[in-house]
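writing this on my phone so excuse typos. first protein, seq and then structure
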Amino acid sequence: MSATSWAATCASSNSSCANREETPVLISLKWLQRHVDLSDLSAEQIMNDLTLTTAEVEGIQSFGQELAPFVVGHVVEHGRHPEADKLSLCQVDAGTGELLQVVCGAPNVAQGQRIAFAPIGTRMPDGSKIKKGKLRGQISHGMICSERELGLSEEHAGIMVLDSEAKPGTPLLEVLGCDDSLFEIDNKSITHRPDLWGHYGFARELAAIYGRELGPLLRGLEFPAPSASETVPISISAPERCLRYCGLLLRDVEVGPSPDWLRYLLLSVGQRPINNVVDLTNFVLFDLGQPMHAFDLGRLAGPSIDVRMAREQERIVTLDGEERSLSAEDLLICDGERPVALAGIMGGEGTMVGDETRDIFLESASFQAAGIRRSSMRVGLRSESSTRFEKTLDPSWAYEGPQLFTVMLQQLSPKTRVAGPISDASSWSFERLQVPLRIRKAQRTLGFAIETKTVREYLEPLGFAFRESGEEEGLPVFDVEIPSWRASKDISIESDLIEEIGRRHGYDNIEPVAPLLPVRSPYRDPSLQLMRKMRNVLAHEGGLFEAFNYSFLSDDLCERLGLEQLPYTRVTNSIAKHLSRVRRDVMPGLLGSLELSLRHRERAGLFEIGRGYRPERRGETRVVDGVEKSLPEEVLQCAVVLGDRQEGSEHPYRELRGILEHLLLRLGREDLGVRRVEETPPWMHPGRCAEFYSQGSEGERSVLCFGEMHPQMLEALNLPRARRGGGIACASIDLRALLARTETPLRYQPIPKFPEQPVDLAFLVDEELEVGQLEALLREAQPKLLRSTKLFEIYRGQGLPEGKKSCNFTVSLGSPTKTLSAKDEEKFIARVRKLAAEMGAELRG
């Protein structure tokens, strides 16, 4: 970790940090050793053992190593700079055997001081490098550093003066003692473990792993007896959101800088020191895992405290200086007149502790996890406090936290008086949770024999208590009492205890045994197989790109495409404010992707396989909160779009039809019929689309609809070049209809021994006649000889009667037994001419 990152932007335990979900939790080795002796273990060994038994450790950071080049210096002589009143000339002994002249601008530098010295060549925490320089005509051979220049704090009023009498040249790290190893804990691996969001929880785990003694939380200190019986009245108006609220009055507090050991511990975990009061609230947060907040008692109206829900549009200025507008779903801490904190997230600016503070009211509470999470997301403010409250903290910590804070504050500010007992307003009462544990069940589940003694050795150091309650198959059954810090979220059933045994035993120590199971052919989901085939054909053979969009649509896209009037399922707590509608069809989202693609490319072909949700048609029924509710019908679809904005290019419609016909061939469903669409989707041109359909026992069923994009859609997508060029073609495939159609198995056919004969045919037909009818006619004429048909032109205009069109085909004829003669071709044409006449068409030429 770089020294510049020590002075993190977090202002207190209520500090706001962006992307907190992705930030690893930092656990300090020095901090752990306050609770358990780990002096004989390397950081690497601890990392490996934690990863195998407790939580995933992503890596180890070295804290303080940027200070390695700095040394202790002794100011032997001090005098004024001859050319500058505000500069000093110092002769510094840095342990090199000779005195070094250094020009210094700090007002507090004096002869005889031990200082932090940066020799020439030292790389500073901000990346700059110390070089030999000249200031107002005097040579400077190094730099005397302030705390800010060392990255230790924001203090820059003067140089850092060391209390130590260390020998000049001694490494600064050795004197400060701030070097540390930090374990990067993947926070996703401890979201179910509220007790691991503080160092004491990890110390408990390590004490159990290595068989060491865990020190008491208060480190042998006792909570002082109150000097009076003063309390602040506390009322909880929202008991469902605030389970417990504890408060403590402390008077005659001396607010000032924290000692170095406390500052360095906080800096190591990315927390900027503020003052001893705020720093100790942060210490308790990172030590025990309990967030707290200190109010300046003199700034509280009343003083009294009420925990209530916010009023709509009520406002509060938080510690970061931002004024925030609240909703009726947000929880507030209020004094007699106004909000003073956004509960569980951040304190208010108006009651913050400052240098003039003498009396404080200390808050320690337990809030409902889901409510804190929702409020944090709603106001866009994530903090160390909210991150922990979201994990369902142990409510008993709300009482233990003030005790730890107070005993430590009296060490830093001995004149501090406890003005009264800890007030405890609570809607929570601790009921000891007991979970039965059958040793035989544990053995069967874990797959190995384990002794009762070993089970107790695994769990008792973690706070579990055993009471034997019976016997099963010759092995004892226990009622296991769950410690409060594991009962809030983590442990509730027997399987949780068995998992705990396996975790402590080490899953890597369990001998793998292959299961003796009957061999059965795995079930293959036809829909998954179909989707896999479609992806292969469309991507690898059709040259299209697969898109993956959210199942939600924005109001803006629906309005632009003219789809806002359709019924949609609405999302009340969407992942983004604009994604409030659940899509009915896959196509609109894919059109949005095509719009982006065609802004940067001349041509784009995309497909997406997914589900649409139709609220007007009810699907599966489920029981939710005791009420039977039907869900929207799910429609499994594949949407395909092909766009080209190059003028004069081949029309995408023809290309798309070729891709679709090849797809149906590869899926074994090439025998589908083609016809004009009666009811067109809103994104297709009503006169330029068709569908493939199947004929079954339930009648005709549309399988695939394809055609040109509706002109209004082209306007909405803001693609003028696509309108002038080849245009956009699209298709929507109903996968359920495809699955209902039996697949025609592919059969091997040898390469024809005899050549195929191409024949061009032109039909003069009425404008209303569909091309599909002509294709059916050609297949009927000579099914044994016909190899393929291709429509290559539809002509309208000069030379043709009004209301007529010319449909021009190329057909390929061939025989497996001979080369076709001219007579065979004439016979085929005669048959076609006859069938055409029967449907009112004329074969030209």
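second protein below, same order as before
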Amino acid sequence: MHEHHPQPSVDRLPGVRPSGRDEVIERRKPRLSPVLSGPALGTEPLSAIGRHIAIGPVLAIGPHIAIALTLAIGLSFAFTPAQLSGQAESEASAASPGVPDPSLAELGLLPGRPRITPTRTEAPPVIDGILDDEVWRTAAHITEFTQQSPLDGAPATEATDVYIAYDSEYIYFGFHAHYEDPSVMRANLGERDRMYSDDLMTVYFDTFLDQQRGYDFDVNGYGVQGDGIMSAARRIGRGRGGVADAIPVADRSWDALFDTGGQIVDDGYTAEMAIPFKSLRYPTPAVGEPHRWGFQIVRELWGKDRENQVWAPMSRDETSFFAQMGLLEGMTDLSTARNLEILPTFTAIQYGDIDPTRPAFVNQDADPDAGVNVKYGITTNLTADFTVNPDFSQIESDRPQIEVNQRFPLFFSELRPFFVEGAEIFNVLAPVTFVHTRTIVDPDYGVKLSGQVGRFSIGVLTANDRAPGKVDDPTDAAFEQTAQTFIARARYDLYAESNIGAIVTDREFLDSYSRLVGLDGNFRLSPTIAGDFRVVGSSYRDVGGGTPVDGHMLATRWGQTARNLRWSLYAYQISRDFDTEVGFVRRRDIRNVTSSLEYRLRPESWIMDWGPQITYSRNYDFDGVLQDEDFSGSINFSFARSISLNGSFSREMERFGGIDFNKSSFSAGGNVNTSRSYSFGANFSIGDEIYYLAPSIGHQVNWSVNATLRPLDRFQTRLRWGSRRLTDPANGDAELFDVTILRATTNMQFTERLGMRNITEWNTQDETFDMNVLFNYRINAGTVFFIGYDDHYQQADLIEGDRDGDGLREQLFYTSGLRRTNRAIFIKLQYLLRY
């Protein structure tokens, strides 16, 4: 129980600038419920089972048996009577007399969670980062924080003040982050969503109080803002070193409209935040009922072993972030106005490129264009998005990947805002990516509907793609034709962090189609055990008709992530004919069984934690022939001051071209992030690898070095230098290939609104040099002005074209210097109108 201390009679509000007169302000203790001790909900029956099956990595058993056994183990857990939130409420009520109904158990939260009621205000603050507004004198006040990491449950090492108020349109936060030694503070002036190596104040909302998804809003000492959407869908058996990463990684592609401000002060920083209720989705309570949201506040301190301080205490014995939230309650009469956002865009682009028929660079005429995006809040929890003629000129280029000697295709992430915003509903963790919107190459329009109705989360997306019709021959049936893509997803919430769902995708072009239908489920079985299953079928028909080809994919994973122990069992199969043109399939004709086991020790000294991990996997084809067998072991160390080291080895058999190749490899790496001014890391691996062009075993050496330099609080450079080299030991270590990529990304923030980004990259695979410069003036998440310059060069004697028009590629230049191959200059203006 919290101790009750006498309140000081008067004190100056932290962070308030003197106003020239002696003002006194009463400091109030936070309105919190005591934190109770005792078992988490539903732990008793399942934790006992977990102890018996924790030794269960399945090793060398047949694939059919492994899949059936893994699914059976999971389903035996999935429907146990105690579903985590169904224990008797009497414990919570008895231990915390006077707690108003509904009880925390009814709301799905663990017993003893703290509660806070914001103060309603008629005088909103000016969001400038200075806590001198009248509202902060009477706002709800929180001062009690504990560590979530590195030592969960330990007292916070720095003092923090948080103030909360609201009106019908906004919820307001004031923060004062104190430091005994301000030199450890990390704060940089940068772009939105680019400050996640800084010290931050973050607020989290689970507005539906269903423990399925939530929002986070962040601010640093300069008022730089970030936001994201979190999902409870867990990556079973994955994560950082056996530790339950209780704070989920948010999807940063989501951009909400909200206001922030920050000020560096003598003992740290102060910040303010105003979040419009229009930027959130939430249920409308019954008339007269207050809103009740899951709520958490986190303060992150990178300079102090990346300490996370939390308002609602968190434990590594409970992996659910949402169940460990506190409760934000008592807000009434929130605005029910429907959100309407109209975002017109104007672009003008001037291209230039090499004439493919002669050694000359040709500039094209400038190409102006316009488009519009519309977002409409059908209800407070259901939103429709429309885009017509979208433009993505400002999008950062793909991160470099070495593409030489790859047996399977590489995956490149989606970066375009219309497709990544709200994509969480379409994401289903599986060995196949069901929805990969980069397959929609050049859309002329798109429509998206997403939100929640009762316990159902829904998402629908349709788009018209012009790319397949961009052929040169007017007699081609595909000439100027478009492909239609349709995606639909529904998910039903069962109980805390558990759901079942269905997905349908379809892509049609001329008389061809690619269709997919799937079912999936995610189950949280105890505070540390979770599982899932996926059942998917596909049907494909090529252009020109013919017989459709059908395929399937099955997958299931079950595992435990506890304070010290982590294990997982994973089995899946993908048939030979499984295909989807809406998603991404890396490999087919495979039956896989994988098991892993990891143990983590926590000395709580200069070694924060360390431990070993072992993984064993087998892949068979559908004829029952063993294709791959892999055993690997690793050890990971996390030290004080954000230093980490790791090492691993593997012994593998890979079958390729009818030959079994035995391979061994070793790798090591580490990262150092001890200073605001710099951080760096390195990875090195050495061992055997197959040369797929002429199947044989080669000797491979890979290495990469990365560094981030911040000499000024508004300037940052990220450098990455990587190499991959393969030699033939049977031929005197003759070089088979040697590829190096050097990439530098530089950001300069001149003011809070004006910034510059430059990306420079050298790639020896094709001897290319690329440069991309972007200036942006950003008023908010929607209103932005861009000016960009994109330039690409290649070694001249490697540039090919069709000189004679015979369809054969041949050399265009006979010099070895760099030649410009492509160039573009563009401007883009978008202005957000919100009603």
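Residues 43-99+340-347+376-391+419-597 form one domain. thats all i got for now
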